[in-house]
Amino acid sequence: MSVRMIEDVDGVMVPAPAPADDDCDDMVVSTSALSPLVTEFVAEWKRHRPSTASRFTNGARHTRTANSMFVGPYDWLAQESGLTVDRIRDIKRGARRRRWTPLAEAEALVVGAFGRPDMLTGSLAPQPNPRGCCGRRSLTG
To answer: What would the pLDDT profile of 103-121 be if each residue is shown by its tens digit?
Structure first.
């Protein structure tokens, strides 16, 4: 398999970056191990911070009450982790959507949002991507 080359800003030919999707990271975490953590977080959030919104808010995720603003668990996780709400929902759905989660996304949730770097061990231990890196190969091979 040949590597697609592109010209960088200095006119030097370099390998093109791999497409951005969940199979292109060198290290991954099992989505089925990460999913229950997100599910538990969302359940705890809803238990301790019930929404004051009625069912007539037309799906608004943010609602105002007196001098405060309700932020849902997915929006808070997105703000803290830098991931999109849709991506967090995909992770929560588990391996039905994607078997592997890139390590960078898992770290953003576990370290950035949950504040628990110690969780990246055991079943959440990073491992080499079983699918490789989207065909990225060395220039000699």
So the answer is: 999 999 998 888 888 888 8
Whether the per-residue pLDDT at 39 is higher than 90: the answer is yes
Cα distance between residue 10 and residue 14, in whole Å: 10
Indicate the number of domains in the chain. Answer: 1
For 105-117, give one letter per residue: b (16+ CB within 10 A) or e. Answer: bbbbbbebbbeee
Which residue shows structure tokens 């040949």? 2
pLDDT computed for residue 103 by the predictor? 92
Could you tell me where the DSSP H helices lie in the chain? 31-48, 73-81, 85-93, 103-107
CA distance 107 to 7: 32
Whether the Cβ atoms of residue 133 and residue 120 lie closer than 8 Å to each other: no
- Is residue 71 assigned to a domain? yes
* Token output for 109: 């949730």
Identify the bridge partners of residue 82 per DSSP, sorted by sequence position.
none
The answer to whether residue 28 is domain-embedded is yes
* Residue 69 in domain: yes
In angstroms, the CA 135 to CA 141 distance is 11
Q: How many CB atoms lie within 10 A of CB 124?
A: 19
